[in-house]
Amino acid sequence: MRGQFATAAEIARKQHGRLTRRQLLDAGIDPKRLDRWVADDRLRIVHRGVYALGHTAPSLHAAYMAAVLAGGFGAALSHNAAGYLLKVLRGLPPRPEITVPTTNRRSRPGIVIHRVRSLHPRDVCVVDAIPMTIVPRVLLDLAPSLKPADLTRACHEAWVHHRVTPAMVEACIARNPHKKGAAKLRRALGADVTLSKLEDLFLALLKTHGVPLPRTNVDVEGDKVDCLWEQHGLTVELITFRYHATRHGFETDNERRRRSRHIAYTYGDVVERGAATVADLWQRLDQASAAA
Questions:
Q1: Per residue in 81-139, pLDDT tens?
Q2: Residue 114 backbone phi and psi in degrees, to 5
């Protein structure tokens, strides 16, 4: 019996402490023995046919793994849940959400299930041992439900964390030509986005003083910059102490940016010294125009 339980533990170890009855039966474990393990709490029921082994600590990965296992063959974590694990979406962890082929008619309480005719093999990957949809497919799945600004932000995060390009998204759309939201997603891919309160405050300062507005969070030679005046070839980075571990790190990074081709403004420059910042920016825009 110890050997069979070790077999179960090895299966669970690879799946965040979760495993299915089918997996245990396929491993040669007797059904009556499984029932005894459930009765004495060595196997705890998470979903129908899905167990947690022993009293392992709960985790988001374990909950999402259990949802995929409950979905059966071909299931993949998707939509908001996949977007959260892939760092495309921010905020609180969403409830488990999976996509399954239409041949799978299972219903599982506590799990949001999306049924499709099929999932293209290129639209599925495995991250941290969990089968899930790839980032472009996540964006396509989320496009109908997200507000335009939130979808634009998700596209930005997809580039930052995974270097997802419009071409990669277009390839996914081509594999799924009947999915809704493709046009909306294409607009979001080409739209500018603000990603912090400081960026919003900076744009508000520019509007108040009639300064031409820049494009925001755009790619310049493979580098994302906060603000870009394309006609002037001028870029601005907006930095705050809260995103640096120490004051020294903040000051060092600020000095590095000031020596680089980017102009760097801090929270204090925008909020406390706004007039001086606007005057400095006007001067730089004029100099850039004269040099053009």
A1: 999 999 999 999 999 999 999 876 777 889 999 999 989 999 999 999 999 999 999 99
A2: -110, 130
One domain, residues 203 and 239: yes
Looking at the structure, tell me whether residues 182 and 261 fall in a common domain: no
Q: What is the pLDDT of residues 263-272, one digit of tens each?
A: 899 999 999 9
> What's the rounded Cα separation, in Å, for the pair 112 and 51?
19
- Domain identity same for 140 and 239: no
Range of the domain at 106: 60-189
Residue 189 contacts residue 120 (beta carbons within 8 Å): no
Residue 104 vs residues 114, 115, 142, 259: alpha-carbon distances, Å = 11, 8, 22, 59
Compute the Cα dihedral for 248, 253, 258, 263 and give only its sign.
negative
